[in-house]
């Protein structure tokens, strides 16, 4: 049986690792500079793990399994029956642990380009948790779920490129994680009290990030060595239609359905 380690050459790279420069992504020059700095450091210091290079994606890192185990020791995890997680490589141990702990797992389809934009993994009906939680396995084992059919979500786990101890987060710059959160808010699947966590390496912590109003703040960040709970967290209370281009609305069915 495969182990929880994400150091090996599995298929668990990003579902879409290229970056995007569209207006509703997150391509502020200051954030791009932080991304490049973190990606460069992870590569130069030997912290990055397959897939390589770490640039342009949520980077896989040494200690991902240990961070996942630490997250699973937290009350937010123990209290959660349904967890939404990202499909990226460093959170593979998180997804596997969720199924092994009997938790329902929700993962967004690539770029939300489906009328059923989430896939549900139910541990009660899956016989191979290791296979089901890889990128290809999520599509094979997951059941498509429309937003109207989504259950309440008890915990969100997001992948990160860089974070601060104040709870600010930078992803790879395409804006999908924040967009997914806003869509879930619009459908009453999450609210301001829903915990949002990330698992990262210590080298991904930075001093400051200039957060935007649409950025989803973290209530819990976990490294292999420590757990941080920021005191205050800022999050959007729904979709900001002024930031969404006509092209993106057209590309994502759920946005077309929600558009005022």
Produce the secondary structure layout:
Blueprint: H1 29-44, H2 64-72, H3 75-78, E1 82-85, H4 92-100, E2 104-108, E3 118-121, H5 129-132, H6 135-141, E4 143-145, E5 155-158, E6 162-163, E7 169-170, H7 176-186, E8 196-199, E9 220-222, E10 227-228, H8 246-251, H9 253-258
Parallel strand pairs: 1-2, 1-5, 5-8, 8-9
Antiparallel strand pairs: 2-3, 3-4, 6-7, 9-10
Pfam family, one: 5-FTHF_cyc-lig
Keywords: Ligase
Region (Disordered): 1-32
CATH fold topology: Rossmann fold
Biggest sheet strand line-up: 4-3-2-1-5-8-9-10
Using the alpha-carbon principal axes, give the shape: globular
What's the CATH H-level superfamily name? NagB/RpiA/CoA transferase-like
CATH architecture: 3-Layer(aba) Sandwich
Helix and strand run: HHHEHEEHHEEEEHEEEHH
Number of strands: 10
Percentage of helical residues? Answer: 25-40%
Q: Which stretches are poorly predicted, pLDDT < 50 over at least 5 residues? A: 1-12, 14-23
Tell me about the biggest sheet?
Answer: 8 strands, mixed
Structural class: alpha/beta
Q: Indicate the radius of gyration in whole angstroms.
A: 17 Å
Amino- and carboxy-terminal Cα gap: 49 Å
Region (Disordered): 1-32
Protein name: 5-formyltetrahydrofolate cyclo-ligase
Keywords: Ligase
GO molecular function: ligase activity
Structure description:
- The protein is an alpha/beta fold and 260 residues long.
- The chain has one domain: NagB/RpiA/CoA transferase-like (Rossmann fold).
- The protein is 28% helix and 13% strand.
- The chain contains nine helices and ten strands.
- It has helices at 29-44, 64-72, 75-78, 92-100, 129-132, 135-141, 176-186, 246-251, 253-258, and strands spanning 82-85, 104-108, 118-121, 143-145, 155-158, 162-163, 169-170, 196-199, 220-222, 227-228.
- Strand 1 (82-85), helix 4 and strand 2 (104-108) form a beta-alpha-beta unit.
- Helix 2 (64-72) runs parallel beside helix 4 (92-100).
- One of its GO terms (molecular function) is ligase activity.
- Residues 1-32 are annotated as: Disordered.
